[in-house]
């Protein structure tokens, strides 16, 4: 079965649209392209990737689509469009013309209005995404989970992907409410969860024991057929590296069967992102 990294980024600082990426984030404050990523993929035996937006601009999405068109290792792109404009429906139609676009990701974690997901104007945009077979990547924080349920329930034909397990507060250990809300979200069949981003939430001194409560919980709630492994590289470099996170993931999932591991490390990503869109074959 194909191995897929379901979540990584590439960027060029000179593009100027990564407002969150400042010199204070020294380990990742430089350009990252496929030549930087490919040695990690080769060492991990990974066949393909999903490239995910890191800037709230359509121009960055087209930048990523150009990368995907030029290299078959990128099997699909999760992009961005402005959901708060009057022509958002037309913009989704236009962007969906590229079959390498497999999903869209509004940066909900950075939107000041915590109730943004509940806006009535949001509903037709989600319906439009479902019509095109696009996935909704949910970049949310624990406080958004109950609000996210509104969209999940209203759009059973739209596939949702929960990025980074909704970023539980691993550093403080304050995850009781997160655990409750994750269990509630996971009851819905049209959402899956990315096993990614956890080491960043844990911090640079993380150990396996720090990650295990969150990993065990999402595994219990979603099951191995609804978890997708992603590196979140190069953001990952703030708290570790590609090889260490991959090894940690394999250790944390060591009790699963070979088929279950194969699903998490590629099969599920292929099913979720690459059945209707994207690059299915080399």
Concise summary:
The protein has 282 residues and is of the alpha/beta class. It has a single domain (4-273), classed as TIM Barrel. It is 39% helix and 12% strand.
Question: Any overview of this molecule?
Answer:
By secondary structure, the protein is of the alpha/beta class. The chain has one domain: Alpha-Beta Barrel (TIM Barrel). It has 10 helices and 8 strands. An 8-stranded parallel beta sheet has the order 1-2-3-4-5-6-7-8.
What secondary-structure arrangement, pairings included, does this model have?
Elements: E1 4-8, H1 34-44, E2 48-52, H2 58-70, E3 74-79, H3 88-95, E4 101-104, H4 122-132, E5 135-138, H5 145-154, E6 160-162, H6 176-186, E7 191-195, H7 198-202, H8 208-222, E8 227-229, H9 242-252, H10 258-273
Helix pairs in contact: 3-4, 5-6, 6-8
**CATH H-tier superfamily:** Metal-dependent hydrolases
CATH C-level label: Alpha Beta
The total strand number stands at: 8
Described by its quaternary structure, the protein is single chain
């Amino acid at each position: 079965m194909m191995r897929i990294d379901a979540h990584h980024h590439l960027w060029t600082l000179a593009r100027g649209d990564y407002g969150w990426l400042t010199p204070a984030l020294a380990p990742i404050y430089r350009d990252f392209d496929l030549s930087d990523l490919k040695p990690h993929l080769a060492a991990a035996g990974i066949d393909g990737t999903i490239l995910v937006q890191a800037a709230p601009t359509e121009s960055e999405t087209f930048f990523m689509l150009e990368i995907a068109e030029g290299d078959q290792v990128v099997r699909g792109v999760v992009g961005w469009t402005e959901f708060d404009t009057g022509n958002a429906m037309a913009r989704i139609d236009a962007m969906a013309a590229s079959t390498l676009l497999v999903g869209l990701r509004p940066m909900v974690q950075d939107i000041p209005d915590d109730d943004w997901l509940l806006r009535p104007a949001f509903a037709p945009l989600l319906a439009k995404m479902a019509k095109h077979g696009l996935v909704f990547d949910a970049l949310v924080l624990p406080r958004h989970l109950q609000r996210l349920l509104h969209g999940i329930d209203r759009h059973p034909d739209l596939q949702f992907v929960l990025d980074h397990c909704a970023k539980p507060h691993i550093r403080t250990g304050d995850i009781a409410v997160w655990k409750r809300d994750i269990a509630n979200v996971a009851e819905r069949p049209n959402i899956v969860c990315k096993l990614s981003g956890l080491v960043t939430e844990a911090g640079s001194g993380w150990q396996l024991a720090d990650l295990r409560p969150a990993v065990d919980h999402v595994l219990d709630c979603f099951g191995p057929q609804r978890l997708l492994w992603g590196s979140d590289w190069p953001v990952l470099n703030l708290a570790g590296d590609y090889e260490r996170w991959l090894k940690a993931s394999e250790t944390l999932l060591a009790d699963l069967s070979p088929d279950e591991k194969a699903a998490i490390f590629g099969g599920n990503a292929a099913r979720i992102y690459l059945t209707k869109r994207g690059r299915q074959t080399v």
